[in-house]
Design brief:
37% helix; 113 residues; globular; 3 helices; alpha+beta
Length: 113
């Protein structure tokens, strides 16, 4: 498979996941989770993250803090179970490459326990 075909295949997979219309797996808290802070705080990112993770059966907790200092970019804080981090990261990275999620430049791979 050529690189272009592989990219098209990943983009198709992301589009299928985004078409998910089932229940959300958003949780109040996630025990033993990792928090990812790579993504811009927007309603579209929130909606797409929820669909992507819920479609794959990954529970998550998502926070969208209110704006603080003017001009400061606000990020989403996404927490997923520690044992699902690698899978989550792969899905969300593919979504970024497909243009379905917007990251904050310079913050890639920010995580906390």
């Amino acid at each position: 498979m050529s690189e272009d075909e592989e990219i098209d295949s990943q983009n198709d997979a992301i589009r299928r996941l985004l078409a998910y219309d089932g229940p959300s797996l958003r949780q109040e808290t996630i025990e033993k989770g990792l928090t990812i802070a790579d993504y811009r705080n927007s309603a579209e990112n929130e909606r797409n993250i929820a669909r992507l993770l819920s479609s794959k059966g990954i529970p998550f907790h998502l926070e969208r803090p209110q704006a603080g200092f003017p001009g400061r970019q606000i990020r989403i804080y996404l927490t997923v179970p520690e044992d699902r981090y690698e899978e989550t990261n792969a899905i969300l990275n593919a979504a970024v490459k497909a243009g379905a999620l917007e990251i904050l430049e310079g913050t890639e791979d920010l995580i906390s326990r």
